[in-house]
Protein backbone atom coordinates (compact mmCIF):
# COMPACT_ATOMS: atom_id res chain seq x y z
CA UNK A 1 0.00 0.00 0.00
CA UNK A 2 1.00 3.58 -0.44
CA UNK A 3 1.90 5.07 2.90
CA UNK A 4 2.69 8.74 2.67
CA UNK A 5 4.78 10.13 5.51
CA UNK A 6 4.39 13.64 6.83
CA UNK A 7 6.45 15.72 4.44
CA UNK A 8 9.38 17.87 5.56
CA UNK A 9 10.51 18.36 1.99
CA UNK A 10 11.23 21.89 0.82
CA UNK A 11 9.49 22.71 -2.43
CA UNK A 12 10.11 25.62 -4.82
CA UNK A 13 9.86 26.38 -8.54
CA UNK A 14 12.77 28.57 -9.63
CA UNK A 15 16.26 26.98 -9.48
CA UNK A 16 17.68 30.52 -9.03
CA UNK A 17 15.76 30.69 -5.74
CA UNK A 18 17.04 27.42 -4.28
CA UNK A 19 16.88 27.68 -0.44
CA UNK A 20 20.34 28.38 1.00
CA UNK A 21 20.04 25.31 3.27
CA UNK A 22 19.94 23.08 0.19
CA UNK A 23 23.08 24.48 -1.45
CA UNK A 24 25.33 22.71 -2.22
CA UNK A 25 23.43 19.47 -2.90
CA UNK A 26 23.32 16.23 -4.86
CA UNK A 27 20.62 16.36 -7.54
CA UNK A 28 18.86 14.46 -10.28
CA UNK A 29 16.31 15.55 -12.84
CA UNK A 30 13.56 14.10 -15.00
CA UNK A 31 9.84 13.59 -15.35
CA UNK A 32 9.60 10.55 -13.08
CA UNK A 33 6.03 9.89 -14.24
CA UNK A 34 4.72 7.07 -12.05
CA UNK A 35 7.89 7.00 -9.91
CA UNK A 36 8.45 3.40 -11.05
CA UNK A 37 11.15 0.97 -9.92
CA UNK A 38 13.70 2.32 -12.42
CA UNK A 39 13.11 5.82 -11.08
CA UNK A 40 13.38 4.46 -7.54
CA UNK A 41 16.86 3.09 -8.24
CA UNK A 42 17.92 6.51 -9.55
CA UNK A 43 16.43 8.19 -6.48
CA UNK A 44 17.99 5.63 -4.10
CA UNK A 45 21.35 6.35 -5.75
CA UNK A 46 20.70 10.07 -5.27
CA UNK A 47 19.99 9.49 -1.56
CA UNK A 48 23.10 7.31 -1.13
CA UNK A 49 25.36 9.80 -2.92
CA UNK A 50 23.93 12.65 -0.84
CA UNK A 51 24.36 10.72 2.42
CA UNK A 52 27.96 9.84 1.50
CA UNK A 53 28.75 13.53 1.06
CA UNK A 54 26.53 14.67 3.96
CA UNK A 55 24.66 16.92 1.53
CA UNK A 56 20.93 17.38 0.84
CA UNK A 57 19.25 15.34 -1.93
CA UNK A 58 17.24 17.33 -4.46
CA UNK A 59 15.01 16.30 -7.39
CA UNK A 60 14.30 18.71 -10.22
CA UNK A 61 11.15 17.86 -12.13
CA UNK A 62 8.83 19.70 -14.49
CA UNK A 63 5.21 20.76 -14.61
CA UNK A 64 3.53 20.40 -17.02
CA UNK A 65 5.22 17.28 -18.41
CA UNK A 66 7.50 18.51 -21.27
CA UNK A 67 5.61 16.49 -23.90
CA UNK A 68 2.39 18.29 -22.91
CA UNK A 69 4.10 21.59 -23.80
CA UNK A 70 6.21 20.53 -26.80
CA UNK A 71 3.91 17.94 -28.42
CA UNK A 72 0.45 18.25 -26.88
CA UNK A 73 -1.00 16.18 -29.73
CA UNK A 74 0.88 13.11 -28.56
CA UNK A 75 1.02 13.86 -24.85
CA UNK A 76 0.37 10.71 -22.84
CA UNK A 77 -2.05 10.67 -19.98
CA UNK A 78 0.06 10.75 -16.84
CA UNK A 79 0.38 7.74 -14.54
CA UNK A 80 0.85 10.01 -11.52
CA UNK A 81 -0.26 13.57 -12.24
CA UNK A 82 -0.12 16.65 -10.03
CA UNK A 83 -0.19 16.26 -6.28
CA UNK A 84 -0.04 12.46 -6.49
CA UNK A 85 3.28 12.78 -8.33
CA UNK A 86 4.73 15.24 -5.84
CA UNK A 87 3.60 13.11 -2.89
CA UNK A 88 5.28 10.03 -4.39
CA UNK A 89 8.53 11.92 -4.93
CA UNK A 90 8.47 13.51 -1.48
CA UNK A 91 7.84 10.13 0.16
CA UNK A 92 11.20 8.83 -1.12
CA UNK A 93 13.15 10.66 1.59
CA UNK A 94 14.56 13.56 -0.45
CA UNK A 95 15.20 16.97 1.10
CA UNK A 96 14.09 19.24 -1.73
CA UNK A 97 11.77 19.14 -4.75
CA UNK A 98 12.12 21.85 -7.38
CA UNK A 99 9.11 21.71 -9.73
CA UNK A 100 10.12 23.93 -12.64
CA UNK A 101 7.23 25.40 -14.70
CA UNK A 102 7.99 23.92 -18.12
CA UNK A 103 7.58 26.43 -20.94
CA UNK A 104 8.73 26.57 -24.57
CA UNK A 105 11.23 29.27 -23.54
CA UNK A 106 12.71 26.94 -20.89
CA UNK A 107 12.90 24.15 -23.49
CA UNK A 108 14.72 26.48 -25.88
CA UNK A 109 17.80 26.70 -23.65
CA UNK A 110 20.90 25.06 -25.08
CA UNK A 111 21.50 21.82 -23.17
CA UNK A 112 24.73 23.19 -21.66
CA UNK A 113 22.97 26.41 -20.59
CA UNK A 114 20.20 24.35 -18.96
CA UNK A 115 22.70 22.28 -16.94
CA UNK A 116 24.80 25.28 -15.93
CA UNK A 117 21.94 27.64 -15.04
CA UNK A 118 19.78 25.04 -13.27
CA UNK A 119 22.37 22.88 -11.51
CA UNK A 120 25.68 24.77 -11.29
CA UNK A 121 24.34 28.28 -10.66
CA UNK A 122 20.90 27.46 -9.26
CA UNK A 123 21.42 24.42 -7.05
CA UNK A 124 25.20 24.58 -6.53
CA UNK A 125 25.33 20.92 -7.47
CA UNK A 126 28.19 18.78 -6.06
CA UNK A 127 27.08 15.65 -7.88
CA UNK A 128 24.46 15.02 -10.56
CA UNK A 129 22.85 11.55 -10.72
CA UNK A 130 21.39 10.53 -14.09
CA UNK A 131 20.11 7.39 -15.79
CA UNK A 132 22.35 5.94 -18.51
CA UNK A 133 19.77 6.68 -21.20
CA UNK A 134 19.41 10.37 -20.30
CA UNK A 135 19.27 12.16 -23.64
CA UNK A 136 17.28 14.58 -25.71
CA UNK A 137 17.12 17.52 -23.31
CA UNK A 138 17.54 21.17 -24.31
CA UNK A 139 17.19 22.96 -27.66
CA UNK A 140 17.42 20.52 -30.56
CA UNK A 141 17.03 17.61 -28.12
CA UNK A 142 20.83 17.18 -28.15
CA UNK A 143 21.71 16.95 -24.44
CA UNK A 144 23.10 13.58 -23.31
CA UNK A 145 25.21 11.89 -20.62
CA UNK A 146 28.47 12.68 -22.42
CA UNK A 147 27.66 16.39 -22.39
CA UNK A 148 26.83 16.17 -18.67
CA UNK A 149 30.19 14.46 -18.00
CA UNK A 150 32.04 17.19 -19.94
CA UNK A 151 30.21 19.89 -17.99
CA UNK A 152 30.95 18.09 -14.71
CA UNK A 153 34.67 18.14 -15.53
CA UNK A 154 34.54 21.81 -16.56
CA UNK A 155 32.47 23.05 -13.61
CA UNK A 156 33.72 20.72 -10.88
CA UNK A 157 30.73 18.48 -10.13
CA UNK A 158 30.66 14.67 -10.07
CA UNK A 159 28.45 12.75 -12.46
CA UNK A 160 26.99 9.44 -11.27
CA UNK A 161 25.40 7.34 -14.03
CA UNK A 162 22.83 4.68 -13.13
CA UNK A 163 22.67 1.68 -15.48
CA UNK A 164 19.34 0.76 -17.09
CA UNK A 165 17.13 -1.12 -14.64
CA UNK A 166 14.54 -3.81 -15.33
CA UNK A 167 13.77 -7.50 -15.43
CA UNK A 168 13.70 -8.79 -19.01
CA UNK A 169 12.90 -5.22 -20.16
CA UNK A 170 13.80 -1.65 -19.22
CA UNK A 171 11.30 -0.40 -16.68
CA UNK A 172 9.68 2.69 -18.16
CA UNK A 173 6.63 4.91 -17.84
CA UNK A 174 5.68 3.90 -21.38
CA UNK A 175 5.68 0.20 -20.42
CA UNK A 176 3.42 0.97 -17.43
CA UNK A 177 0.99 2.88 -19.68
CA UNK A 178 0.91 0.02 -22.21
CA UNK A 179 0.03 -2.49 -19.51
CA UNK A 180 -2.72 -0.26 -18.11
CA UNK A 181 -4.13 0.19 -21.63
CA UNK A 182 -4.34 -3.63 -21.84
CA UNK A 183 -5.94 -3.95 -18.40
CA UNK A 184 -2.79 -5.71 -17.15
CA UNK A 185 -2.74 -4.02 -13.76
CA UNK A 186 -0.56 -6.78 -12.30
CA UNK A 187 2.09 -6.12 -14.98
CA UNK A 188 1.85 -2.38 -14.27
CA UNK A 189 2.27 -3.02 -10.53
CA UNK A 190 5.32 -5.17 -11.24
CA UNK A 191 7.05 -2.16 -12.85
CA UNK A 192 5.68 0.43 -10.42
CA UNK A 193 6.51 -1.60 -7.32
CA UNK A 194 2.99 -0.88 -6.03
CA UNK A 195 -0.55 -1.07 -7.44
CA UNK A 196 -1.53 1.68 -9.90
CA UNK A 197 -3.63 4.42 -8.30
CA UNK A 198 -6.42 6.64 -9.65
CA UNK A 199 -7.62 9.54 -7.49
CA UNK A 200 -10.85 11.52 -7.64
CA UNK A 201 -14.00 12.77 -5.94
CA UNK A 202 -17.08 10.57 -5.58
CA UNK A 203 -20.07 11.76 -7.63
CA UNK A 204 -23.60 10.50 -8.17
CA UNK A 205 -24.16 7.65 -10.64
CA UNK A 206 -27.53 6.38 -11.83
CA UNK A 207 -28.45 5.09 -8.37
CA UNK A 208 -29.02 1.58 -9.76
CA UNK A 209 -26.29 -0.01 -7.68
CA UNK A 210 -28.09 0.10 -4.35
CA UNK A 211 -31.17 -1.57 -5.90
CA UNK A 212 -28.93 -4.27 -7.35
CA UNK A 213 -27.52 -4.93 -3.88
CA UNK A 214 -24.10 -3.55 -4.81
CA UNK A 215 -23.96 0.19 -4.15
CA UNK A 216 -20.97 1.64 -5.98
CA UNK A 217 -18.93 4.77 -5.40
CA UNK A 218 -18.49 6.47 -8.80
CA UNK A 219 -15.36 8.51 -9.48
CA UNK A 220 -15.73 11.88 -11.16
CA UNK A 221 -14.99 11.87 -14.90
CA UNK A 222 -11.92 14.02 -14.45
CA UNK A 223 -10.23 11.60 -12.06
CA UNK A 224 -6.42 11.72 -11.95
CA UNK A 225 -4.15 8.94 -13.20
CA UNK A 226 -4.47 6.68 -16.25
CA UNK A 227 -7.74 4.74 -16.11
CA UNK A 228 -7.01 1.07 -16.98
CA UNK A 229 -8.86 -0.70 -19.80
CA UNK A 230 -12.54 -1.52 -19.31
CA UNK A 231 -12.90 -4.51 -17.03
CA UNK A 232 -13.58 -5.73 -13.52
CA UNK A 233 -10.78 -5.55 -10.97
CA UNK A 234 -10.02 -6.35 -7.34
CA UNK A 235 -8.37 -3.51 -5.48
CA UNK A 236 -8.21 -1.14 -2.56
CA UNK A 237 -10.41 1.87 -1.96
CA UNK A 238 -8.80 4.55 0.22
CA UNK A 239 -10.85 7.37 1.74
CA UNK A 240 -8.23 10.10 1.66
CA UNK A 241 -10.21 12.49 3.86
CA UNK A 242 -10.14 10.05 6.80
CA UNK A 243 -7.15 9.93 9.17
CA UNK A 244 -4.62 7.15 8.47
CA UNK A 245 -5.59 5.17 11.58
CA UNK A 246 -9.36 5.22 10.89
CA UNK A 247 -10.65 1.62 10.49
CA UNK A 248 -12.64 2.58 7.35
CA UNK A 249 -9.81 4.41 5.62
CA UNK A 250 -8.72 1.50 3.38
CA UNK A 251 -11.42 -0.92 2.21
CA UNK A 252 -11.26 -3.97 -0.08
CA UNK A 253 -13.28 -3.41 -3.26
CA UNK A 254 -14.54 -4.89 -6.52
CA UNK A 255 -14.01 -2.22 -9.18
CA UNK A 256 -15.76 -1.81 -12.51
CA UNK A 257 -14.33 0.30 -15.35
CA UNK A 258 -16.64 0.63 -18.34
CA UNK A 259 -19.79 2.03 -19.86
CA UNK A 260 -22.20 -0.39 -18.11
CA UNK A 261 -23.19 -1.99 -21.46
CA UNK A 262 -25.86 -4.14 -19.78
CA UNK A 263 -27.77 -0.88 -19.26
CA UNK A 264 -26.77 0.49 -22.70
CA UNK A 265 -24.66 3.13 -21.00
CA UNK A 266 -22.37 5.35 -23.04
CA UNK A 267 -20.30 7.14 -20.41
CA UNK A 268 -17.16 5.42 -19.12
CA UNK A 269 -17.07 5.29 -15.32
CA UNK A 270 -14.76 3.99 -12.63
CA UNK A 271 -16.90 2.65 -9.81
CA UNK A 272 -16.08 0.63 -6.75
CA UNK A 273 -18.19 -1.63 -4.57
CA UNK A 274 -16.59 -1.73 -1.12
CA UNK A 275 -17.08 -5.37 -0.15
CA UNK A 276 -20.03 -6.06 2.15
CA UNK A 277 -20.53 -2.36 2.88
CA UNK A 278 -23.98 -0.97 2.16
CA UNK A 279 -23.78 1.62 4.94
CA UNK A 280 -21.38 4.12 3.37
CA UNK A 281 -22.21 7.63 2.19
CA UNK A 282 -19.21 8.70 0.14
CA UNK A 283 -20.53 11.52 -2.05
CA UNK A 284 -18.10 14.41 -2.25
CA UNK A 285 -15.25 12.45 -0.66
CA UNK A 286 -11.76 12.38 -2.16
CA UNK A 287 -10.71 8.75 -2.68
CA UNK A 288 -7.94 6.67 -4.22
CA UNK A 289 -8.56 3.42 -6.10
CA UNK A 290 -5.60 1.01 -6.28
CA UNK A 291 -5.90 -1.66 -9.00
CA UNK A 292 -4.52 -5.02 -7.80
CA UNK A 293 -5.85 -7.84 -10.05
CA UNK A 294 -7.80 -7.94 -13.31
CA UNK A 295 -10.77 -10.30 -12.83
CA UNK A 296 -12.58 -10.29 -16.20
CA UNK A 297 -13.60 -8.07 -19.12
CA UNK A 298 -16.75 -5.94 -18.89
CA UNK A 299 -19.66 -7.84 -20.49
CA UNK A 300 -23.06 -6.94 -21.88
CA UNK A 301 -25.40 -9.36 -20.13
CA UNK A 302 -28.84 -10.30 -21.48
CA UNK A 303 -30.46 -9.85 -18.12
CA UNK A 304 -29.85 -8.19 -14.76
CA UNK A 305 -29.96 -11.64 -13.12
CA UNK A 306 -26.95 -12.73 -15.19
CA UNK A 307 -25.10 -9.54 -14.24
CA UNK A 308 -25.87 -10.23 -10.59
CA UNK A 309 -24.49 -13.77 -10.81
CA UNK A 310 -21.28 -12.42 -12.36
CA UNK A 311 -21.01 -9.65 -9.74
CA UNK A 312 -21.42 -12.15 -6.89
CA UNK A 313 -18.55 -14.18 -8.35
CA UNK A 314 -16.42 -11.01 -8.78
CA UNK A 315 -17.01 -10.10 -5.15
CA UNK A 316 -16.02 -13.60 -3.94
CA UNK A 317 -12.86 -13.51 -6.02
CA UNK A 318 -11.97 -10.01 -4.84
CA UNK A 319 -12.48 -11.07 -1.23
CA UNK A 320 -10.21 -14.12 -1.68
CA UNK A 321 -7.50 -12.10 -3.40
CA UNK A 322 -7.53 -9.22 -0.96
CA UNK A 323 -8.01 -11.08 2.31
CA UNK A 324 -4.74 -11.14 4.17
CA UNK A 325 -3.09 -9.16 1.39
CA UNK A 326 -2.59 -5.99 3.41
C1 LIG B 1 -17.91 -5.93 -9.51
C2 LIG B 1 -18.71 -5.23 -10.57
C3 LIG B 1 -18.78 -5.81 -11.84
C4 LIG B 1 -19.53 -5.21 -12.86
N1 LIG B 1 -19.57 -5.79 -14.09
C5 LIG B 1 -20.35 -5.25 -15.06
C6 LIG B 1 -20.45 -5.86 -16.35
O1 LIG B 1 -19.78 -6.84 -16.68
N2 LIG B 1 -21.27 -5.30 -17.25
C7 LIG B 1 -22.00 -4.18 -16.98
O2 LIG B 1 -22.76 -3.75 -17.83
N3 LIG B 1 -21.89 -3.55 -15.78
C8 LIG B 1 -21.09 -4.07 -14.82
N4 LIG B 1 -20.98 -3.44 -13.60
C9 LIG B 1 -21.56 -2.12 -13.42
C10 LIG B 1 -23.01 -2.15 -12.95
O3 LIG B 1 -23.81 -2.19 -14.09
C11 LIG B 1 -23.21 -0.85 -12.20
O4 LIG B 1 -22.51 -0.92 -10.99
C12 LIG B 1 -24.66 -0.57 -11.92
O5 LIG B 1 -25.32 -0.33 -13.12
C13 LIG B 1 -24.84 0.62 -10.98
O6 LIG B 1 -24.54 1.82 -11.64
P1 LIG B 1 -24.67 3.23 -10.89
O7 LIG B 1 -23.54 3.31 -9.87
O8 LIG B 1 -24.54 4.26 -11.96
O9 LIG B 1 -25.99 3.26 -10.22
C14 LIG B 1 -20.21 -4.01 -12.59
C15 LIG B 1 -20.11 -3.41 -11.32
C16 LIG B 1 -19.36 -4.00 -10.32
C17 LIG B 1 -19.28 -3.33 -8.97
N1 LIG C 1 14.58 1.71 -16.10
C1 LIG C 1 15.42 2.68 -15.77
N2 LIG C 1 16.68 2.38 -15.36
C2 LIG C 1 17.55 3.36 -14.99
N3 LIG C 1 17.25 4.67 -15.04
C3 LIG C 1 16.02 5.01 -15.44
C4 LIG C 1 15.04 4.05 -15.83
N4 LIG C 1 13.91 4.71 -16.19
C5 LIG C 1 14.17 6.03 -16.02
N5 LIG C 1 15.44 6.22 -15.58
C6 LIG C 1 16.10 7.48 -15.27
O1 LIG C 1 15.29 8.19 -14.34
C7 LIG C 1 15.44 9.60 -14.56
C8 LIG C 1 14.10 10.23 -14.81
O2 LIG C 1 13.57 9.65 -15.98
P1 LIG C 1 12.45 10.35 -16.84
O3 LIG C 1 11.14 9.96 -16.28
O4 LIG C 1 12.70 11.78 -17.01
O5 LIG C 1 12.71 9.81 -18.25
P2 LIG C 1 12.50 8.47 -18.97
O6 LIG C 1 13.83 7.81 -19.18
O7 LIG C 1 11.78 8.86 -20.19
O8 LIG C 1 11.60 7.59 -18.09
P3 LIG C 1 10.57 6.61 -18.71
O9 LIG C 1 11.26 5.88 -19.81
O10 LIG C 1 10.25 5.75 -17.59
O11 LIG C 1 9.44 7.45 -19.22
C9 LIG C 1 16.38 9.76 -15.77
O12 LIG C 1 17.69 9.95 -15.28
C10 LIG C 1 16.24 8.41 -16.47
O13 LIG C 1 17.36 8.08 -17.24
TrEMBL record:
Task: Give the molecular function GO annotations.
Answer: kinase activity
InterPro entries given for it? FAD_synthase, Riboflavin_kinase, Riboflavin_kinase_bac, Riboflavin_kinase_bac/euk, Riboflavin_kinase_dom_sf, Rossmann-like_a/b/a_fold
Sorted alphabetically, the keyword list is:
ATP-binding, FAD, Flavoprotein, FMN, Kinase, Multifunctional enzyme, Nucleotide-binding, Nucleotidyltransferase, Transferase
Q: What is this protein called?
A: Riboflavin biosynthesis protein
Report the family membership.
Belongs to the ribF family.
* A Pfam match: Flavokinase
Query: What EC designation does it have?
Result: 2.7.1.26, 2.7.7.2
Domain Riboflavin kinase, which positions?
191-323
**Enzyme type, top EC level:** transferase
Keyword Phosphoprotein recorded: no
Which pathway does this polypeptide act in?
Cofactor biosynthesis; FAD biosynthesis; FAD from FMN: step 1/1; Cofactor biosynthesis; FMN biosynthesis; FMN from riboflavin (ATP route): step 1/1
